[in-house]
Amino acid sequence: MPATATPYVMPLPTPVEAHRHNYLNHSKGFLSWALTLDHKRIGLMYLAGVSTMFLLGGLFALFFRLELWAPGMQMISQATHNKLFTLHGAIMVFSVIIPSIPASLGNFVLPMMLGAKDVAFPKLNLLSFYLYALGTLFFATTLVWGQVDTGWTFYAPYSTTTNTNVIMALMGAFTIGFSSILTGVNFIATIHSLRPRGMTWFRLPLFLWAIYATSIIMVLATPVIGITTLMLMLERLLGLGIFDPRYGGDPVLFQHFFWFYSHPAVYIMILPGMGVISELIATFSRKHIFGYKFIAFSSVALALFGFLVWGHHLFTSGQSPLASVLFSFLTFSVSIPTAVKIFNWMATMYKGSISLATPMLYALGFLFLFSIGGFTGLFLAVLSIDIHLHDTYFVVAHFHYVMMGGTIIAFIGALYYWWPKMFGRMYNETWAQVGFWLVMIGFNTTFLPQFVAGSKGMPRRYADYLPEYQIYHQISTIGAMILGTGLFIAGGTLLHAMFRGRLAPPNPWGAATMEWQSASPPPHDNFTVVPPVTDPYDHEDFKWKSHEEGFVRTFPKPQTTTRPVHA
Amino acid sequence: MNLLFAADPQYLATEVNTGGFWMPGELSTTAGSIDWAFYVVLWISVILFIPIIIITGYFIVKYRRRTPDQEPDPSPSHSQLLELGWTIPTIPIVTVFFYVGVHGFVDGRTMPKNAYEIGVVAQKWNWLFEYPEGVKSPELHVPANQNVVLTMRSNDVIHALYIPVLRVKQDVPPGRFSKLWFNCVKPVEANLFCAEYCGDDHSKMITKFVAHDQAGFDKWFTEIKDWRNWELTLPDGQKRKYLPAEAGAKFYRERGCQSCHSIDGTVKVGPSWKGLWGSERSYNSPQGPGHVTADENYIKESIEVPAAKVIVNFQPAMPSFKGQFRDDEIVCIIEYIKTLK
User: What is the pTM of this model?
Assistant: First the structure.
């Protein structure tokens, strides 16, 4: 077609014009935010909630790491330590990691990646946010009223007999669960119904494949934790004998119910992180992602296999040995799609033009940390080794490498990546990199020694410990302080950029996904001109323009229409 | 004669100070195969991890963007052969891991015949080990080079018995019996932990694991059988038998009383023992409230049927200790309480 030969530049507003009128100042006042149906504003509200809770959960961790500096109790009682680690875990899992990428960034980016104006059900989206806020409020309430001390796992019969405010925390988990389900339903509907003409399933950015797989787990697994928390509440309130053997219940049944949700939930937490990494590595290598279909299908495979492996949390619980053997076997099946993703990301960088901007540094950090998390998972999947390592610091270190080294690192990388789009301003590269290196050094100093402490037999959830484990705890505490400093710098850099950063071009990274073909920050309706649908990794259409300090699309792809089907 | 109340027991550093960088000393017949599996996974992981880091690092250096407009060299974006090439080899690797794990696990779960059997009671926050002839001990003493089977139960919440040097761990949920076996290959003292979170003093639920040669085990057994055989070392190095109140103090510390009762007036889960003896107690009972003087019968009843008289302002939280103390041992506890004025 002759049209292909015509040089064509997308008509986008200049940064100054974009700042004059965009979704942030489209309407003003408290209610314009509190009652907004704009997915971008809802995403930002989630981000505010998640960040606040991350700060809170992080401070708890720093506090009990200080207490663990020396054997004996120096600052707080054992009971207080137990409440701190419980709230650290519950807040980090339910209020931070689960909603972090999908609910905050997913909300902001998903419709824009489809060239759409919003998600399929904007009102449901707002309801979902308020359920999240309410659930988080329940957790926060336990701080001042009744402080929970069950661990985030709520194992019965401890949780049914302790005199702390377990009901309030369970209501938190229950309510946030509903928020998750609604978000999942919304995202599935959006990806099915709002894709523009020409965006086939295999033209979806991999971030959306990951969000799609995540949403399916959210919708299928979360009801189980809802029912389980409800049963626990009924048992506490009415003495129903479900889990407590004094009334004829079975405590191991609770663990099955709990992990039937919570293991798939691990994939709710990590899949969106993997989706982010696929985008970052392709963009910052200026390469088409390698093995698109393998990465996409491995997300779906992880979502499916994730449902079949919950029993590997119960190897020492007394479940039948045959069940343990089967669960061990199935657990190894999860390791294969994970390895496939890592190899594909590496292959994407081959012969690329690799920029080491902060988002890419975080993506590389993810590769390093998540690989360690994955390899140490193998130890725990091996039955006989898990008997020794279960409930020790080895497990603590492993899941921090996966959840924090994986999801949170990807989340921070994603924030740096999409920050210019969200607020139309660039961050300070120097400070961002200082923060990154402190986070990496601090993280590894904190958690590497915990692998050794664990294999040496140090049990987890101990408020106090024997003197021979002190060296590991001290290194770990020093690391935690460095990590905390790094995170403060990372957060401070982002906050500074939000208000003082230089104006961002529409596409500072040369990404080919649709959200970058709108102004930064985008207008209320997301696009002034809806961009053509192309392969989301065709980076060669975007050329560096030094006067804009960003990339500009020069050629439209001829084979697609520019008309969005949902308009 | 001055009463001597020994300090809290000291735990030994065997775990960390023996063994290699990763694992504590290897003291059971099954530990070897578990450690072997650990090192197989460790070294295969290291061998796979290093190339990932080196190749990624090489790409970063070699293909680094030097000018903002630098474009990549063309290269394919998919290769069926490469994908299969790195997917298929993972299958035999994880199969090997699976196999070595199952092998060691099944050995650990198959109870041997002709083993020395010990009962274990776990409760917040102490262990009690039950031997033949009704002998009870707060520490786990076993004969070395002999199969030992532990039959464990819990009085309250889930606990887990964990002895790192033996590489054994088993949850002890309430409402069922859980079994565990091991064979400790030489006389040793090591730590025994509770590994499943069980509340406030979870991290204090630690006791000693001691393996003796047969002669040493028999000697220990005769001594532990009756508190009247216990020997106390005086500050000047001389030895004498325990007085009842001293034995009572040892029961207080080692049989779980101190988890809930203080001896200095602090209110914990249960009332403090300070000033308890001879005091007037107001209680609630299934028959209604009442008053009682704290005498021998009241203390014996409170140990064996704690719900019968629950002191005002406290919850009926105490489990029954019926059968865990002989009458002469209850006398020791009473004698101890008498000293707490």
Answer: 0.91
